[in-house]
Amino acid sequence: MRKKLLTGISLLLTVIFSLLCTCKELPSNPYERGENLKITMFISGDLLEASAGYPVSVGLVVNIPSLVKKLTVLPGDDQKEITVALKHPESSQPDTVYFETMYKLTGKKNIIVRAAFGDGIIKEFPFLLRVFDSSNSLWKQDTMTIAVKEDTTISYSLLTLLKDPSATNVVFSTPDTGVNGTIWKYSIPKGAISRDTITLVASNDGTEKSVLKVFLIVLSKDTVSKNSAPEFTTDTIRAVIITGSQYLLNLKDSCKDSNGDALSYSLVTPSKGSITTTMYGYTPSDSDAGTQTATIIARDLELSDTLTIIFTVKQDDTEPPSVTFTPSPVDTIFSSDTACTISLKALDISGIDRVEVSSDSKNPSKVTTVNDSIWNIMVSSLGSGIAAPVTITVFDKSPRANFSETTAVVKYKPTDNDKPEIQITSQSKDTALIYKSTCEVILKCIDASGIQSVTASNGTATLNVTGVTDSVFSATVTDVPSDRYMPVTFTVTDKSTNVNVSTKTIYLKYDPTGTDLTAPSITLKNPASDNTVIGTSSVTVDILCTDDNGVVSLICEFGGKTYSATKGTNNIFSVTIPGLVKGANVLKVTATDGSTNANTKSASFTVNYDPTLSDTTGPVLTLPAWLTDNTTVESSSITFTAECTDINQVASVQCSFGGNLFAVTNSGNIYSVTVTGLNSGITNVITLTALDGSTNKNKTVKTIAVKVANAPVITIQPKSQTLNTGNKLTLSVTVSSSLPLTYQWYKDNVSLTGATQSTYTVNSALFSDSGVYHVTISDGTNVVKSSTASIVILTSPIAYWNFDNLNDNTFRDYTDNGYTVVCSGTGYSTSAGKVGNALSLTGNKFLLEVLNSKNNFYFPSYSIECWFYLNSDPTQYTVDDYVYELLDFSSIAPGDRNGFGAHINIDGTATFGHSATNGERWHVAKTPIVSIKKWYHIVFVADSNLLKIYLNGQLEATSTYSGAYINPGVNAHIGCQVLNTGVVRGFMDGLIDEMKYYNCGLTENEIITRYNLK
């Protein structure tokens, strides 16, 4: 035996050795090689598509799971890496796993699936996914995956797949088959392909179309790789659930797999609820009320089964049951026996679960169910006169177990021999007047055993009695007579075994006038209004007086006496009151109606007696004999008197002319007045108005026509003038008149002292003599006023060049002070200027020197005025890089700057330079930038330590300086600047006109005046 064993072992070793020697390499296991690993991805068939904003379930198929030690996914769209667990990590058969993700942005997404091997090698599988916008889709999501077995039929309510399941205007269709109304049924035949895609279309009113792609994972019923499919015990579960409560389902108990392979469970989107390992749970909210669904897929190694749960979600019941009792437990329940039965009625939308009773152990209680809403409660062993409280609790069938609780008190009262007590609460007395023919009588009935019935009768007629509460009752009594008291009898019976009865009778009478609490109305008809003025000492007063129950009397009280009024037609009451006194008379009227209450009302009226009311004649107004119409007077005023009388005295006399009133004085009946302002050459109408002292204010009016001799006539008016200081000013006027004349001259409406001739003269005019002048002329009666003459006095310059004429290369100084401008070089001429001709300068070959200015232009205060026009932009100047000089009076050397300069700077501003006292620097004032091809009026002023520049009459720049500048000791130049070295620069390119130099600082008013003269 040992030998045989050794022989066998030797043979085996020989075979192995032979194989090692004869074979170059043994074939390797393909399930252990990483290059054989394949991973595929699917979402909806062959399409890798997803909707933005919605969760998507992505499937991965790993062909050799045993090669993979770790499987991760980078979904893209800035999402974190996901680790996916394999179901069968040791298997060499394909394994299908799922992961969920969601994309917010549309477009193409790169998904990277990484498989890590045991040796640290990672293999990547890239996939391209398209994410599209489905925000306008009618579907909850635009893709859906369903795992279903072959040879079966699936059915879905398409409304549950919509965003709005309650929509009524959606039409469903499919290019495939199975859509019928709102239901989709689809049959998967035996042997169907492993994956299939179904297209479902939802249209809103037939216009808006949304597409849902359904991906079917078709599973074979045949055994695959020794596995049989997992199978739920049922395909569909229907459940009713209340909002706020939780539905739980143990999936492991509901799904079996004969091979015992491990199961995985997932929800098909959209589905309600969630899965934790093998437990499915769903807690609906109030917004889920209605029908909701959940689709669950159970998977083993390769096969799966589907379970659909259809929920009917009802809102939570938070209201307790409603409970009513007979008799009511509000009051104590009396029982004539030692046992008492209380009937209870309870209602609730969730139904009644149970009724519980709690009572004292001495008084046991028992509950008996009559039906779903009626229960009887028996309380026994009641003691006489002892209260037995019974607490009753009713629970509903809702998950909250809402309940209502109340307590009834039961007393045992063996025998009742007392009659009911009757109290009438609507009337304070048993005999009563009422103010309507129909009234309500309310009575309260009290009895220990309770009230069984209440009846009422009116003689032989029975009245209807209504119970308000258990002890308060109401009876309506009609046709109550107004001529007598009508008896009403009440009969009350209690609930005792003795049937005790009480009666009570009240007496009612209808008084129609009893409700009249309104006094008569009083309206004065004659006189027409209160405070009427009459001219007689008696008055007949007519009063309109009305009342629903008639007016029985109307009296009038006056002067301590009472006068009764007589009723006429249409409710008019008349009464005559004599003996009125002058002035106000107060009449008091009182009216009484015919009601039981005898309502009264008083009113007072005032009648004013005026004996003068009959006077209708105005005062008598008598003028002097000399004053008649068209009376002629020599002056512009007239004084006269008039006599005025009236039987009721004269109240006033007024005199008016030309819209003015003149003061009238009197002495007795004689009135005097002076009227002024009469006009010559026309008829002047004077009006006298007299009023008497009567109430009627009678008036007398007289007019007087008066003429005045002709006024003076101005034949030549004063003339406006513009002069320089020191010139002679002469104003004159020529007047035609037959009478001697006087004159008065005015300046700015102020009279000039001594200016009383036809001519006004100022021998040496000053600037202060500027103003508006006029003269008035009087002939003693008439005064006329001349037109105005404007006088402008301007400061005289010490040098003035108008540049109108160029004679022998010189320009004349029109002040005749000898400041002649001498021109040399080329580039200077005259051309049309602002006024006449102007100096025209161009190029850089000219020199214009002001003779005799060397020492004569030096003043502590000075001004320069001119008009200028630029041909080119100084900021772009090509001749030199210096300024455009207007007038330069300076001496410039290194470290030495004396004098002043007025020019246009290279920055485009008008600039005024004034040297410091020590000659080391310039004080400069600059305006805003000026424009080319445009005339500017400019004035440079140095005065009171201020440099000022005015452009077109406006102050545009200021700068301070201290002290006068140092005399440069050279002649001034126009349009250029000469340095101490002899170099000429600052050549003006443009026109200069009307240049003036002043030995003082011009005022702003004068500068504005000069600019406006143009």
Q: Please, could you describe this protein's structure?
A:
The protein contains 3 helices and 87 strands. The protein has 1014 residues and is mainly beta. It folds into 7 domains: 225-316, Sandwich (Immunoglobulin-like); 322-412, Immunoglobulin-like; 421-510, Immunoglobulin-like (Sandwich); 515-613, Immunoglobulins (Immunoglobulin-like, Sandwich); 615-708, Immunoglobulins (Immunoglobulin-like, Sandwich); 713-794, Immunoglobulin-like (Sandwich); 799-1013, Jelly Rolls (Sandwich). Strands 70, 73, 74, 76, 81, 82, 83 and 87 form an 8-stranded antiparallel sheet that branches. Strands 61, 64, 65, 67, 68 and 69 form a 6-stranded mixed sheet that branches. Strand 82 (946-951) and strand 83 form a beta hairpin. It starts with a helix and ends with a helix.
Please supply descriptive tags for the structure shown above.
Immunoglobulin-like, mainly beta, 3% helix, six-stranded mixed sheet, 7 domains, 1014 residues
Shape: flat
Helix content estimate:
under 10%
Number of domains: 7
Number of helices: 3
Q: What value does the Rg take, in angstroms?
A: 64 Å
CATH class of the largest domain: Mainly Beta
Q: Terminal Cα separation, in Å? A: 151 Å
How many β-strand runs?
87
**Beta-strand percentage range:** over 45%
Largest sheet: 8 strands, antiparallel
Find the structural class using helix and strand composition.
Answer: mainly beta
Return the CATH architecture of the largest domain: Sandwich
CATH topology of the largest domain: the name is Jelly Rolls
Low-confidence regions: 1-29, 223-227
Indicate the mean pLDDT. 83
